[in-house]
Amino acid sequence: MHRLLRAIASRPLGHHQRRRLLSAFAADHPIRRHPPTDSAVPWNKLLRDRLARSRPDLALALYRLMRALSPGLPNSYTLPLALRAAPSTRIASAVHAHALHLGLHAHSDVAGQILAAYARIGRAADARHVFDALPVRRTTLTWNTLITAYSIGCDPDAARVVFARMVVGGAQPDAVTWTTLLSAHARCGRHLEVLELFRDMHSSGCEGNAEAVAVALSACPYAGGPALAKGRSIHAYGFVKGVVHGYMFVANSLVCMYGKLGEMGEAEKVFQEAREKNAVTWNALITSYAAAGMCKEALDVLARMECRGGIVVPNVVSWSAVIGGFASSGDMEQALELFRQMQQRRLSPNVVTLATVLSGCAELLASRLGQEVHGHTIRAVLDRHSLVQNGLVNMYGKCGRVTAARRVFDQMKSRDLISWNSMIGSYGMHGLCDEALAMFEDMARAGVEPDGVTFVAVLSACSHTGHVAEGRRLFNQMVREHKISPSMEHYTCMVDLLGRAGLLKDASELIETMPMRPDPCVWGALLNSCRMHGNAAMAEATIAKVLQADEAETTGNHMMITNLYASCGMWDESKRVRVMTKEAGLRKNPGQSWIEVKNKVFAFTAGNAPLPEAVEIFRVLNYLYAKMQDEKHAKGDAIATVI
Asked: Where are the PPR repeats (predicted)?
């Protein structure tokens, strides 16, 4: 490695390269005259000034100019400053190469900053190489830096090995060591180990710091049964140590922890007691309410945040959380309305917001609004993000625009399981079985392993088009080749497939072999097939089983049985089931339809109060009825004339 870096550093700069560097520096630098090249001191002073003003880009431009004018000018004070400004592996490696070329790589400050630069960008292997070559005795700081490299590189096992070596080597772990080790495990979702390490830290005599408390609190919601007790224990520990009210990020972690555990009273209390609140604090509370399904409360907090004024105002995270909460609770109309309000405030949505809104458009079949959101993603250069692309495929597919869904799918550079499932499902729900099966084969050739959702989609496609043999083959393939245990949805698809094809006996036998008790959807599929094929005997046997089952308390199946009897002229039985339904306190969900007009969805529900625009709607409806009657009479008169 050193030989390669030396070779890179020793390459001379050409005349044109020097001129480009001088021009670039002159464009960014506030002074037009550079320091003399006989001493590194004024250059180092300028480098420090750029870093102090959080302008690492100008610091690097200055360093490049310094090397272009005098390659041997940087000293042991210059290189650490340049390394602090290094934003990438390429630049860190280049400065490392310069240090080797100048013979300064063994200097303690330079070596320490090379190690820190590699650690900061997660280059654990390079950091380890530098660490092992350190010429001086390793301090707690250098051990901590190496552990940080493994933490950022998401390798908690290696971080733990380094920690053990540190202890054996006689170095004393401090609060930073423990916090870094905790973070390494938290980054990888190893939450139980985070809590064990926090306990070990306390047992070792190290009191930790506010950062350690915050990391431990973030792991509590994933601790299983004793999660709340552990969270309260760490809360009490932080309160005693004075970090709860002294550090805003600890209060934020507490709000998140209690919110994720559903303890909204505790979360609100911590929020109210916080001395200072930033956008993260407000968003933590909003997100917690939204995740708990308390969407009205989340919206209230958003309104409080907006009315408060000042520099802390609702941002895209705040709005996305509330929009996502309403979408998750099924209130897509409110989610879309909030999205419009967000746009009116000139806030640019992120990929999470757009994916949520696209999901809402798909559920409401609002294709025009979905198309507008698609246009927004293109303008915002977010249309290539997998989360957005999957949302677009799903939205176009559910809205019946399968060609548009396929166009988005074909434009995807990388496709995950959700992408394939969405496209196969789009074909399946619209009866395009051949296309769905072809897509399934393409998925297999692409090396993507199907899951249960994939097979629900292809079995549903087979069911809609009567591909019985293909459906049976896929069901067996799912169980035998992919080792996926059939769920209730898979059995429902198979019963529907066999029943629609008139194989009612096979469908009934499949239900008998199910390892779980059939749910109303399974019985409903068989009953519907009996109705389609007029098989009264099979219907009678199925009805008896449905009425005996615990799951019979379902309005849908009761209504299907009632209608089935009525269609066969068995009015007494139909009336009996209707009375049973009423006595059981079951009510049929009212019919609902909706229409999208000017990007707004209007819902019509049977039995509900009419919309404010009802008078105008019914006026137009009556006009249309009259026109249809006139056309009908005109057509009748024309036929009579011909005769």
From this structure: 139-173, 174-208, 278-312, 315-349, 416-450, 451-486
For residue 592, give the H/E element and its range.
strand 592-597
The region that residue 149 occupies, defined by phi over 0 for left and psi between -120 and 50 for alpha, beta otherwise, is: alpha
Alpha carbons 22 and 171: distance in angstroms, whole number: 46
Residue 485: φ, ψ to 5°: -75, 130
* CA–CA dist 385, 403 (Å, integer): 20
**Cα-Cα-Cα-Cα dihedral sign, residues 341, 346, 352, 355:** positive
What percentage of the chain carries pLDDT values higher than 90? 41
Task: Name the amino acid, one letter, at 155.
Answer: D
Contacts of residue 190, defined as CB under 8 A and 6 or more positions apart, other chains included, come to 156
In angstroms, the Cα distances linking 158 to 126, 149, 443 are 14, 10, 36
CA distance 533 to 561: 15
**Residue with the two structure tokens 């079951």:** 586
**What residue type is assigned to position 462 of the chain?**
C
Closest alpha carbon to 361 in 398, 326, 390, 324? 398
Tokens of 185: 């495990």
**Which pair of structure tokens corresponds to residue 507?**
């469908």
* DSSP secondary structure code for residue 612 in this structure: T
604: three-class secondary structure by DSSP: strand
Token pair for 66? 């310094």
Q: Please give the full DSSP string across 34-55, using - where no structure is assigned.
A: PPPTT-SHHHHHHHHHHHHTT-
Could you tell me how many residues make up the chain?
A: 643
Taking the C-alpha atoms of residue 391 and residue 474, their distance in angstroms, rounded to an integer, is 27
Q: 79: which residues sit within 8 A by CB, 6+ positions away?
A: 95, 98, 99, 102, 104, 110, 113
Closest C-alpha to 247, from 274, 280, 273 = 274
Q: What is the pLDDT of residues 253-303, one digit of tens each?
A: 999 999 999 899 999 999 999 888 999 999 999 999 998 889 999 999 999
Does pTM surpass 0.85? no
Residue 404 and residue 396 in contact, taking contact as beta carbons nearer than 8 Å: yes
Are 188 and 153 spatial neighbours (Cβ–Cβ below 8 Å)? Answer: no
Angle at 260 between CA 315 and CA 307, to 5 degrees: 30
For 414-432, write each residue's pLDDT tens digit.
999 999 999 999 998 888 9
Q: Which of 465, 466, 444 is nearest to 455 (CA)?
A: 444
The whole-number pLDDT of residue 483 equals 93
> To 10 degrees, the CA torsion angle through 325, 331, 332, 333?
-120
Locate 141 and state its tokens: 């700081």
Residue 293: left if φ>0, alpha if ψ -120 to 50, beta else—which one? left
Structure tokens, 163: 């920690």
Residue whose C-alpha is closest to residue 322's, from 349, 371, 381: 349
- DSSP single-letter state for residue 603: E
